[in-house]
C-alpha cells in the first residue's frame, strides 16, 4: 500500500527567500514575515441576527466582534472586522483548536466560510515599514489615523487585502498584518519585497502563535 | 557655502575677458564670479557637453555650469533648427533642451535648467547634424515661408496612401527633439502614497510662510518644492525679512520646519496633477542628480498625495516679449540673469542690455553691476527708471532708452548687439553680449485650473490670476498675483492658517514674517513689430506671424489657435508662450485678452516619464498574477504556462522528443480518452452561497432551478444578464441545506461575484443569504478518462463507494482520502469522459497533484493543460468563452430548454425580446472542413456556398477550433444563422485575414459520444 503524504505547502514556497535583501548596511529597515499555519473563518451574521451573532461571539471568544473597522483580541481568536455584520475569526492552527465549536455556536444565526487556505498572512514591521507600505497601500497609516487595532479592507495592486495593526513590537515599531488571497501571495510578496529593498529587508516565515 | 545675493564684484580683467573672442574654446569657468552663490567651491565637478570637458561646482545646474563656462549655444530649435541658448533658470525652460546620459539611460529633452550637475555628467545637444554649430537642417530656416502654421495640414494632404508610408516617416525624421534610449531602462521607479492635512505646493517665501503657519497650528503638512532646495526667488533676489537677510531668515525657517514632526518638506518634488477628492500627483526626482542611483535606490518616484486642503504657492513665471531675434542665444529672461548671477555666481554676459516693461526687471541692473558686469542700456517703453531705482548710485551712468528692441544681431555664439527702435521710429544699435528681457510675470495658474477653473484677468499686473480653484485648494503669493515679498509672506501665512483651521488644527500659528512691499508697476508690451522672426513659442518655433496667419485663416478660437499653430503644445505646455500668444490674437481680433480666453489646462504640469508612472509595474511585473496551487509542481514538469486573465495556467506539458505543442496536446487528449488524466481547474471561480434563502437566491440568478436540488447533488447552471444575454455558466452543488457551492468560469469569476453581491445587497436585501468567494480556499482538479475510478480508488479511503450507484453522475459530497484528509468530490465532466472533480484545501493542492501521479502510475496517468481541456470540450460541443461572448442567448447556445417557465429569473423578460428570439439568429453548430487535412481557423466567416462573401451574405463565424485527435481532423464550433436546421449543408468558409477560402460541413456540435454514454459509464 502506497503512503500518501499530505504536506501543506505555502503559496510562498518559491518567492519567500529567508534572510537579508536589498541594502545590506545597518539595521534592516523592514522586516517581512509570512505567518504560516493560520485558521481563518469568515463569520457572516444572518439576516437580522447581528445581535445574536455578537452575543454568540462574546460567549465563545470573550469579546464582542468589532462593529467598526477594528481588530479585537479574544480568548481563542482575533476578530477582524471585514464588513457590516461580518468578521474574520483568526487563530493559529492547532490540534486542540476550539474552532470546531464555531459551527455549533453560530448554527442558525451566522453563516461560516472556512478561509484558512484562501488567504496568506504576512506581517510587516521595522523602522521604515510605513515607507515601504506607502508604495503599495493607499491607506494613511499614521498613528493618528491607524492606531494599534485599526483595520481596513483595502487593495494592493488592484487585489483585495485586509490590513490590521497589531500591538507594537518589542522594538516599539508598528506591526502591520496583511491578509491577501492565496493565489496572489506570490505576486504581492514580490511587490512588497521590491518596495522594501532600498531600506534593507529581513524576510522570514514563522508559525502562527 | 556663502551668502545668497550680493556677490562680490569681480575684477573685470580676471574672469570676464578670457572669452573675449567668442570663438575660442571656453576656458573653464571663464564666467564664474570669484565668490558668492549657492555653490560649493570645495566640490568641483567635471562634466562634458558635446564631448567638451568642463568643470562646475556642486550646487550648479547644467545650465548654470554652462553659463559659468561661457557656453551660449546649447540647442537647435524644433522646426527651423535655429541656434538656441538658455532662456530661463527654471522648469519652464523652452530652449535649452539637451540629451543627458548615454546608452540605456539616454534621456532626450532634458531641461538643462533643472538638471543638477553631478560629476561626469554627459550631455549632448540634440536636433542638429553634423554639429551644433553647423547644422545642416538649419536650411529649414531658409524655407521658413512654407513652414508656417498649418503647414502639415496644407501640404501633406494627398494622396492618402502617402500618409503612413511617405509623409509620416519624413516628418518624423525632420522634426522631433532628441532620441530616446533604445534599450530597456535599467533604473527602478516607484510609486507611493502620502497623506496630510495641508499640502503646500512650492517652497518660496509664500510657501514657507504657509507651511510654517499650518505646521505651527498643528496640521499635518507636506511642502513640495521642485527645486533641490526651498527658497524660490529668495535664492536669487534676496531681500530683507524680519530685519534679517533673506538667507538668514530662510535658514531659520527651514530649521523650524525641520523641527516640526508634523511637517514634511519634499524637495526635488514637482506637483503635476490635481485630481478628485483631494488627490494630487507629484514627481520626486530622487536620484536624477547622480549619474547612477545607488544599489536598490530608485531614480524617480511618483507620489499620490491625499490632502484635505492645499495651498498653491507655485510662484510666477517671467514672460518674454515678442520681438525679432528674441530667440538668439544670449537673450535671457531678466529673472534668470539674476538667478545665474546671484544664486550660481555665473555671469551670462559681460555687457548686459535690459529690455523691460516693468519695475521688477530693473532689479537686474543692480545685480549685474554688483557682480562687476556692465549695463549696456536699459530699454523700457516707459522711457525712464522707476522712482525706486532713480536713486541707485550705479544707475546714473546707465543709458535708458525708450521704445523697444527690434532686432538682435548675433555672432556664432550668440548676441553681439541689439537694435532699439525708439518711439520716433529711429533705430540705434547697442553692443551687448546678453539681453535680459522682462515682459512681466504670469502667476502659475495651471494647478488651480486643472478642474476647468477659468483664470481671471487682472489689469494691474497684466496677467491672469487663479479663478475657481478645485475644491479644497487656495492660492497664495505670486501664484495669486501678489508680487511683493511682504505680501507673499502675509498671503502665505494667512492661507496656511486658514487651511490648517479647516482641518481642525487651530494651534498658535505665530505671526507672518515681515518684509517691504515693493511696488510692481507694469506697462503691458507684448510685441515689438519689426521685420524678422519674432518667437512666441520657443520650443515649437511658433512666431507672431503664425498667430496672425491663424487668425486670418479663421482659427480665432484659442483652442483652434493652439492646434493650428501648435502654440503651447510642446513639453513646456506654453509656460512662457501662452499669454503672449493670446495677447497677439487679442490684438488681431480687436478683443481684450480675457475676451480671447485661455485654453484648457490639463495635467501633467511638468513632463513625467512613463517609467515613473509605471513604477515597479513593468516587464513580468506589469500586473499582479495568480498562481494555481499546483503551479510549482507543473513548472517542475516543464509545463508551458499561458496567461488567462491574471492566472498563469499550465497550457500543456511537453515531453522530450515532442516537436510542437500539437503533438503534446494530442498525446494528452488521447491519454485521457484512453486511460486517465488530470488538470488543475482551481482557477474556476468558487462561491460559498450560504443561508436559508440560498436556494431561492440561486433560482433568481440562474435560468434553471436550484432550490429543488438535493443535498449531495450538482447541477449545471446558466445565468443571464439583465438584458437576456448569457452571462456565465458553471456547476453548482448543494453541500448542505443552507450551503451551495457555486462555480463560475475562470474569466468571469470576478464579474459574477460582483453581480451576485449586487443581487444580494441591492435587488433582494430581504433574502437571508450570505456570499463569500472561496476561489482561493480550494485546489480543484478534474480527473477524467475511463480509468478515473481506478485511480480514485487508490487515493480515496476504500470505505467510500465510487460506483455508479454509490456516486452517480452529478453527485457531490465529501470523501476521506488515504492519509487522513478530507476532500470534496464532484462527479461532473467537461471532457465527455467518466470524470470527477476533486477539491482539497489549497495548501494540499500540490500534494494532491503528486499523489494523483502516484495513484495513477499503473494507468499511465497524464497531467493535461488548458489546450487539451479545450480540445475535449470542443469535441464534446461544450460552449465556453468564445461562445459565451456577450451576444449569445441561451437558445443560441443550444441551452434554451434550460430556461424555466415556472419561475422568474434575471434576464427572463428581456430574453423574450423579438430580436433575441428571431428564427434567423446565429446559433452554435459544429463545423468541419470538407477537405479532411485542411486546418480550420477561428474567426473565419461562414457564407452560403457559391455566394460572394460580404456583409449582406455573411451568416456567422467560426468561434472555436481544434485538431481532434479522435476524429483525426480539424473541427470547430461556429455561430451560424439558422444553424441547427442546416446539419449536413456545405458552406463556404471565408477568411480574408489569412486569405483562405474553403468549404466546410455544418454538423452537430457534439462530435464525440453524442449519447453521453462515456461520462455516465
UniProtKB/TrEMBL annotation, chain A:
Domain GCVT N-terminal, chain residue ranges per copy: 85-206
Gene3D superfamilies: Heterotetrameric sarcosine oxidase, Probable tRNA modification gtpase trme, domain 1
InterPro entries named in the record: GCVT_N, TrmE/GcvT-like
Name of the protein in its database record: Sarcosine oxidase gamma subunit
Source organism of the structure: Mesorhizobium alhagi CCNWXJ12-2
TrEMBL record, chain B:
InterPro entries: 2Fe-2S-bd_N (IPR042204), BFD-like_2Fe2S-bd_dom_sf (IPR041854), FAD/NAD-bd_sf (IPR036188), GcvT/YgfZ/DmdA (IPR028896), GcvT/YgfZ_C (IPR029043), GcvT_C (IPR013977), GCVT_N (IPR006222), Sarcosine_oxidase_asu (IPR006277)
GO molecular function, one term: sarcosine oxidase activity
Region Disordered, residue ranges: 17-37
Domain of life: Bacteria
Signal sequence region: none
BP GO terms, sorted: tetrahydrofolate metabolic process
Name of this protein: Sarcosine oxidase, alpha subunit family
Species, as recorded: Mesorhizobium alhagi CCNWXJ12-2
Source species taxonomy: Bacteria, Pseudomonadati, Pseudomonadota, Alphaproteobacteria, Hyphomicrobiales
Amino acid at each position: 500500500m502506497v503512503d500518501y503524504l499530505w504536506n501543506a505547502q505555502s503559496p510562498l514556497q518559491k518567492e519567500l527567500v529567508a534572510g537579508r535583501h536589498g541594502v545590506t548596511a545597518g539595521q534592516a529597515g523592514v522586516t517581512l514575515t509570512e505567518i504560516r499555519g493560520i485558521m481563518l473563518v469568515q463569520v457572516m451574521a444572518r439576516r437580522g441576527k447581528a445581535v445574536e451573532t455578537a452575543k454568540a461571539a462574546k460567549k465563545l471568544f470573550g469579546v464582542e466582534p468589532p462593529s467598526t473597522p477594528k481588530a479585537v483580541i479574544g480568548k481563542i481568536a482575533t476578530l477582524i472586522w471585514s464588513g457590516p455584520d461580518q468578521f474574520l475569526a483568526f487563530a493559529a492552527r492547532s490540534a486542540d483548536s476550539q474552532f470546531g465549536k464555531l459551527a455549533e455556536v453560530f448554527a442558525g444565526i451566522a453563516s461560516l466560510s472556512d478561509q484558512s487556505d484562501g488567504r496568506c498572512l504576512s506581517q510587516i514591521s521595522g523602522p521604515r515599514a510605513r515607507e515601504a507600505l506607502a508604495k503599495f497601500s493607499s491607506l494613511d497609516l499614521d498613528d493618528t489615523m491607524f492606531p494599534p487595532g485599526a483595520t481596513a479592507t483595502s487593495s494592493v495592486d488592484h487585489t483585495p487585502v485586509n490590513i490590521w495593526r497589531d500591538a507594537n513590537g518589542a522594538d516599539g515599531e508598528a506591526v502591520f498584518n496583511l491578509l491577501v488571497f492565496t493565489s496572489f501571495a506570490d505576486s504581492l510578496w514580490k511587490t512588497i519585497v521590491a518596495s522594501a529593498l532600498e531600506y534593507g529587508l529581513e524576510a522570514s516565515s514563522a508559525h502562527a502563535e | 557655502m556663502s551668502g545668497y545675493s550680493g556677490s562680490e564684484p569681480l575684477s573685470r580683467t580676471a574672469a570676464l575677458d578670457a572669452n573675449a573672442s567668442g570663438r575660442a574654446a571656453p576656458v573653464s569657468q571663464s564666467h564664474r564670479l570669484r565668490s558668492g552663490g549657492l555653490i560649493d567651491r570645495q566640490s568641483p565637478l567635471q562634466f562634458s557637453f558635446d564631448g567638451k570637458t568642463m568643470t562646475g561646482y556642486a550646487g550648479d545646474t547644467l545650465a548654470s555650469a554652462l553659463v559659468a563656462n561661457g557656453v551660449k549655444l546649447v540647442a537647435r530649435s524644433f522646426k527651423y533648427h535655429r541656434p538656441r541658448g538658455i532662456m530661463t533658470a527654471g522648469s519652464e525652460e523652452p530652449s535649452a533642451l539637451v540629451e543627458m546620459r548615454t546608452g540605456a539611460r539616454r534621456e532626450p529633452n532634458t531641461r538643462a535648467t533643472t538638471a543638477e550637475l553631478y560629476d561626469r555628467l554627459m550631455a549632448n545637444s540634440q536636433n542638429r547634424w553634423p554639429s551644433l554649430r553647423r547644422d545642416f537642417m538649419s536650411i529649414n530656416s531658409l524655407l521658413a515661408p512654407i513652414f508656417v502654421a498649418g503647414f502639415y495640414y496644407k501640404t501633406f494632404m494627398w494622396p492618402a496612401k502617402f500618409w503612413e508610408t511617405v509623409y509620416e516617416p519624413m516628418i518624423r525624421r525632420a522634426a522631433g527633439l532628441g532620441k530616446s534610449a533604445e534599450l530597456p531602462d535599467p533604473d527602478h521607479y516607484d510609486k507611493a502614497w502620502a497623506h496630510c492635512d495641508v499640502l503646500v505646493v512650492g517652497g518660496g517665501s509664500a510657501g514657507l510662510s504657509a507651511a510654517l503657519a499650518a505646521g505651527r497650528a498643528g496640521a499635518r503638512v507636506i511642502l513640495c518644492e521642485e527645486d533641490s532646495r526651498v527658497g524660490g526667488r529668495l535664492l536669487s533676489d534676496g531681500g530683507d525679512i524680519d530685519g534679517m537677510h533673506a538667507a538668514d531668515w530662510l535658514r531659520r525657517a527651514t530649521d523650524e520646519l525641520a523641527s516640526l514632526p508634523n511637517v514634511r518638506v519634499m524637495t526635488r518634488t514637482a506637483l503635476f496633477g490635481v485630481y478628485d477628492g483631494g488627490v494630487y500627483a507629484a514627481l520626486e526626482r530622487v536620484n536624477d542628480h547622480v549619474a547612477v542611483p545607488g544599489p536598490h535606490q530608485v531614480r524617480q518616484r511618483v507620489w499620490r498625495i491625499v490632502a484635505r486642503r492645499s495651498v498653491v504657492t507655485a510662484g510666477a513665471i517671467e514672460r518674454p516679449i515678442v520681438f525679432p531675434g528674441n530667440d538668439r542665444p544670449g537673450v535671457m529672461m531678466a529673472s534668470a540673469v539674476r538667478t545665474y548671477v546671484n544664486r550660481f555666481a555665473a555671469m551670462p554676459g559681460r555687457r548686459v542690455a535690459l529690455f523691460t516693461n516693468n519695475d521688477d526687471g530693473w532689479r537686474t541692473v543692480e545685480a549685474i553691476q554688483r557682480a562687476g558686469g556692465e549695463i549696456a542700456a536699459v530699454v523700457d517703453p516707459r522711457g525712464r527708471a522707476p522712482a525706486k531705482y532713480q536713486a541707485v548710485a550705479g544707475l546714473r551712468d546707465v543709458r535708458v532708452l525708450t521704445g523697444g528692441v527690434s532686432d538682435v544681431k548675433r555672432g556664432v555664439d550668440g548676441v553681439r548687439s541689439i537694435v532699439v527702435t525708439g518711439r520716433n521710429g529711429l533705430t540705434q544699435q547697442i553692443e551687448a553680449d546678453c539681453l535680459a528681457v522682462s515682459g512681466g510675470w504670469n502667476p502659475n495658474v495651471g494647478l488651480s485650473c486643472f478642474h476647468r477653473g477659468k483664470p481671471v484677468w487682472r489689469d494691474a499686473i497684466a496677467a491672469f490670476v487663479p479663478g475657481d480653484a478645485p475644491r479644497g485648494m487656495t492660492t497664495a503669493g505670486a501664484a495669486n498675483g501678489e508680487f511683493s515679498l511682504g505680501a507673499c509672506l502675509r498671503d502665505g501665512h494667512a492661507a496656511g492658517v486658514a487651511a490648517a483651521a479647516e482641518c481642525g488644527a487651530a494651534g498658535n500659528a505665530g505671526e507672518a514674517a515681515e518684509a517691504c512691499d515693493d511696488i510692481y508697476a507694469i506697462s503691458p508690451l507684448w510685441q515689438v513689430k519689426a521685420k524678422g522672426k519674432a518667437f512666441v513659442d520657443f520650443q515649437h518655433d511658433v512666431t507672431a506671424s503664425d498667430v496672425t496667419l491663424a487668425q486670418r485663416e479663421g482659427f480665432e478660437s484659442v483652442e483652434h489657435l493652439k492646434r493650428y499653430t501648435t502654440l503651447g503644445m510642446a513639453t513646456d505646455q506654453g509656460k512662457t508662450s501662452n499669454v503672449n500668444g493670446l495677447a497677439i490674437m487679442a490684438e488681431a481680433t480687436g478683443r481684450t485678452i480675457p475676451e480671447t480666453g485661455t485654453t484648457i489646462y490639463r495635467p501633467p504640469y511638468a513632463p513625467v516619464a512613463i517609467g515613473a508612472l509605471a513604477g515597479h509595474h513593468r516587464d513580468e511585473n506589469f500586473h499582479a498574477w495568480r498562481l494555481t496551487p499546483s503551479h510549482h509542481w507543473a513548472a517542475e514538469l516543464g509545463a508551458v504556462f499561458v496567461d488567462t486573465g491574471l492566472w498563469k495556467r499550465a497550457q500543456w506539458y511537453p515531453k522530450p522528443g515532442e516537436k510542437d505543442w500539437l503533438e503534446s496536446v494530442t498525446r494528452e487528449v488521447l491519454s485521457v480518452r484512453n486511460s486517465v488524466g488530470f488538470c488543475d481547474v482551481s482557477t474556476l471561480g468558487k462561491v460559498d452561497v450560504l443561508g436559508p434563502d440560498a436556494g431561492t437566491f440561486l433560482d433568481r440568478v440562474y435560468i434553471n432551478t436550484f432550490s429543488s436540488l438535493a443535498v449531495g447533488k450538482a447541477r449545471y447552471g446558466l445565468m443571464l444578464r439583465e438584458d437576456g444575454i448569457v452571462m456565465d455558466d458553471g456547476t453548482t452543488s448543494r453541500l448542505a441545506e443552507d450551503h451551495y457551492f457555486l462555480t463560475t468560469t475562470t474569466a468571469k469569476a470576478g464579474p459574477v461575484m460582483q453581480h451576485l453581491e449586487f443581487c444580494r445587497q441591492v435587488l433582494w436585501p430581504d433574502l437571508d443569504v450570505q456570499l463569500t468567494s472561496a476561489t482561493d480556499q480550494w485546489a480543484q482538479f478534474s480527473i477524467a478518462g475511463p480509468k478515473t475510478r481506478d485511480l480514485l480508488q487508490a487515493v480515496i479511503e476504500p470505505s467510500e463507494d465510487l460506483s455508479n450507484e454509490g456516486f452517480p453522475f452529478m453527485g457531490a459530497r465529501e470523501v476521506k482520502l488515504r492519509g487522513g484528509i478530507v476532500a470534496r468530490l464532484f462527479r461532473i465532466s467537461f471532457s465527455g469522459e467518466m470524470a470527477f472533480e476533486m477539491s482539497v484545501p489549497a495548501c494540499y493542492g500540490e500534494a494532491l497533484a503528486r499523489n494523483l501521479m502516484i495513484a495513477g502510475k499503473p494507468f499511465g496517468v497524464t497531467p493535461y493543460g488548458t489546450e487539451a481541456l479545450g480540445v475535449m470540450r470542443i469535441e464534446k460541443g461544450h460552449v465556453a468563452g468564445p461562445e459565451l461572448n456577450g451576444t449569445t442567448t441561451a437558445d443560441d447556445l443550444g441551452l434554451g430548454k434550460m430556461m424555466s417557465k415556472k419561475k422568474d429569473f434575471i434576464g427572463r423578460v428581456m430574453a423574450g425580446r423579438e430580436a433575441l428570439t428571431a428564427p434567423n439568429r446565429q446559433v452554435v453548430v459544429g463545423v468541419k472542413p470538407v477537405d479532411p487535412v485542411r486546418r480550420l481557423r477561428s474567426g473565419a466567416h461562414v457564407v452560403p456556398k457559391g455566394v460572394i462573401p460580404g456583409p449582406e451574405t455573411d451568416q456567422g463565424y467560426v468561434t472555436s477550433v481544434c485538431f481532434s485527435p479522435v476524429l483525426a481532423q480539424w473541427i470547430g464550433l461556429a455561430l451560424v444563422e439558422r444553424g441547427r436546421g442546416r446539419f449536413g449543408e456545405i458552406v463556404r468558409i471565408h477568411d480574408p485575414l489569412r486569405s483562405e477560402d474553403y468549404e466546410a460541413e455544418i454538423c452537430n456540435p457534439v462530435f464525440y459520444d453524442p449519447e453521453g454514454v462515456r461520462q455516465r459509464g
